[in-house]
Automatic annotation (TrEMBL):
The keyword Transmembrane belongs to this UniProt entry's keyword annotation: yes
Keyword line: Membrane, Transmembrane, Transmembrane helix
Name this protein carries in UniProt: DUF1648 domain-containing protein
Signal peptide span: none
Membrane-traversing stretches: 20-39, 65-89, 110-130
Lineage: Bacteria, Pseudomonadati, Bacteroidota, Sphingobacteriia, Sphingobacteriales
Gene source species: Pedobacter gandavensis
Domain DUF1648, residue spans: 27-72
């Protein structure tokens, strides 16, 4: 492990990055809205665990549906906070003042994609649970 200091750079978001951030936030908002709207129509007990063949093997109260958007929101917030400190990420190449901006840009963009992917995965899980 190296003890050299990495440069701290404040990255300006490009239009593309802002769009990705917006998509992630809108999907997260839609996820919460979907659960809120569907809640009244859910049966008293819903599947909360599925086996490898896709059959439900554990059931819980319908209020358990809120645990999925809560976890998605917690992960979204965690990734948003972590994304503000790219100088602490693990990189394959040594970070120098010359390559820091590009490496930080790529790393933070990857986390933006990951945030959107996490929300999409949780939205899929919620959809499967609601429509089982």
């Amino acid at each position: 492990m190296t003890t050299t200091k990495r440069p701290v750079i404040k990255l300006e978001l490009s239009l593309f990055d802002k769009i990705i951030e917006g998509i992630g936030f809108l999907l997260l908002t839609a996820l919460w809205l979907c659960v809120y709207v569907q809640y009244a129509g859910l049966p008293k007990y819903i599947p909360i665990h599925f086996n490898f063949s896709g059959a439900a093997n554990s059931f819980g109260h319908r209020s358990d549906i809120y645990s999925l958007p809560m976890v998605a929101t917690a992960l979204y917030i965690l990734l948003t906070v972590v994304n503000n400190f790219p100088q602490y990420f693990n990189y394959l190449t040594p970070i120098t003042p010359e390559n820091a901006h590009r490496q930080y840009l790529l790393a933070t963009r990857l986390l933006r994609y990951l945030k959107v992917l996490v929300v999409v995965i949780f939205a899929t899980l919620i959809s499967i649970t609601i429509h089982y």
